[in-house]
Design brief:
Layout: H1 6-13, H2 34-53, H3 62-84, H4 89-106
Helix pairs in contact: 1-4
Length: 107
């Protein structure tokens, strides 16, 4: 039998109303979205600085390009979520698949 990744299970189950981790994410919501708003302001400020520092056509290490691409994808996912009011079908399917695996592991 494979080892259970408790960290992954905890992340998946935290947003549910069932299972051993039910409601764990609610404590973080006591202050509303204050942290998220501040984080978005920081992201805006940092991306502005980086945009000024990075010259068009300049050589860039692969890992730096990967980080920029990953950040862009994360922000794009959030934009799509708030623009559409829902997660993309692909992300929802992935989340449901992980929940299914986690539920089976807890049996």
């Amino acid at each position: 039998m494979s080892k259970i990744n408790r960290s992954l299970v905890r992340k998946v189950m935290a947003g549910t109303d069932w299972g051993p981790f039910a409601g764990e994410d609610r404590e973080a919501d006591r202050d509303g979205n204050y942290m998220s708003v501040n984080n978005m302001k920081d992201i805006h400020e940092i991306s502005g600085r980086l945009t000024q520092m990075i010259e068009v056509g300049a050589e860039m290490e692969d890992w730096v390009e990967d980080k920029i691409s990953a950040a862009r994808q994360l922000l794009s996912d959030l934009d799509r979520y708030y623009s559409n009011g829902q997660e993309s079908d692909k992300k929802a399917a992935q989340r449901n698949a992980v929940k299914s695996v986690a539920a089976k592991a807890l049996k």
